[in-house]
Design a protein that fits this description.
16% strand; Rossmann fold
Length: 253
Amino acid sequence: MDISGTSAIVVGGAGGLGEATVRRLHAAGAKVVVADLADDKGKALEDELGVRYVRTDATSEDSVRAAMAEAAAVAPLRVSVDAHGGPASGGRLVGKTGEPLDLAGFRTTIDVYLTGVFNVMRLAAATMAGQEPTGSGRGVIVSTASIAAYEGQIGQIPYAAAKGGVVSMTVVAARDLSPLGIRVVTIAPGTFLTPAYGKSGEQLEAYWGPQVPHPKRMGQPPEYAALVEHICANDYLNGEVIRLDGALRFPPK
């Protein structure tokens, strides 16, 4: 699929993985809409690149509908990338004091990291469905999971469950949308050097770098963005979850 001149929306486009994707798709000629809650970063990207920033809550139907409408108004929407983040709870299923893991925190994590992805996926698909197809179909939807979906670490049950749900939705969504010519692909990153960790790059690299088989470093956001661009270009990638992790497999903790 040639994305030049088409519209692309990046939900979470002001974050680490999202910003790199915005830059990559913009450089490839797409008319990019940045959908995020980080107003300062979103508007900075808008000023720098000439992209469109739309304040968007991935868990809100009205908010995402409005963002999709903005994207479709610019040009036919062919690309939807979801790399949004948010609060995530954690802890052992039963803590040291014998208390069970907090139910409210679990629900919040599922809402942000699974229901939010579903919300973006369904509304992007509905928007694309109303557009004329090209030789490559109507478009592609790229979601973001995590290798925690496969090897969640101790204390990661809520996050692993949410990301596991994203993995499980992928092939079903691809089958659902195949009559419409819409592809669905998920990227499952390993440890990527982004501000989401809340620690310095040196600290993170010192901890995670030696654990990655090869290359012995954390992933860089432009590597995620490069994979997004390839997914867009390669029409035969569909219904697949792609691990992007340097062969890292999470240890228990």
